[in-house]
Amino acid sequence: MDEKGRVSLPSAFRRGEIDTFVLVQLQKPYLTLYPEAKWNEVEDRLMDFGSSDPASMNAVRGILANLAEVSPDKAGRILIPSHLQAAAGLDGSVALLGMSSRIEIWDPATLRAQTDGAGEAQAKLDALALKLGR
Q: pTM surpassing 0.90?
């Protein structure tokens, strides 16, 4: 992330006709970047969740109040607003993880701490990887 809070998107995510993304913190401690069409699906599911009771709707409101619509500049960079930088503890280097239809944006040290603590889940994933590699 540069000093202005801009991050270059991976070229695979810039291909096609996507010009608007939604940047949101659905789960702490990282941010998630969705193409607008995918975000619309996620938002529908959030609204369904929120309709179950007032406390759930307040949680959804908190998420929606802090999201940002972003568009890549000519160099393929998006601007991460300062309130989202602070929410995810981003300062300087960031880790971008392609997760199929979205990108997660992490503080690298926080990501390492999360993945190092995977324990039993990592062992299950290792076993699956062996099966997939046959």
A: no
